[in-house]
Amino acid sequence: MTNQELRALPEGIRAAKTALTDKTWSQHKLAIALSITRQPGSKFFAGEPVSRSCFVQICQQLNYIIQDFLNCSVENESTKTLLT
Description:
- The structure is a single chain.
- This protein is mainly α and 84 residues long.
- It is built from six helices and two strands.
- The protein has a two-stranded antiparallel sheet.
- Helix 2 crosses helix 3 (38-46).
- It is globular, with a radius of gyration of 12 Å.
- The relative contact order is 0.24.
């Protein structure tokens, strides 16, 4: 994982899946709403690293605070600083 990639915590992934259900959205609809391909969304929900910009977009679209989703144990200090 590079400094430009972030990974969601398992709790964050569960919350994001619940948010999708509450909005009656699929991962595909989320990708369309964000104008991204399905791959970053699939990676996000699988707990795999995604680009910082996609990570932020997904969290914002689902109305979540980014730090609630972050697996900070795998991030460096500069990444954490940029997201606070």
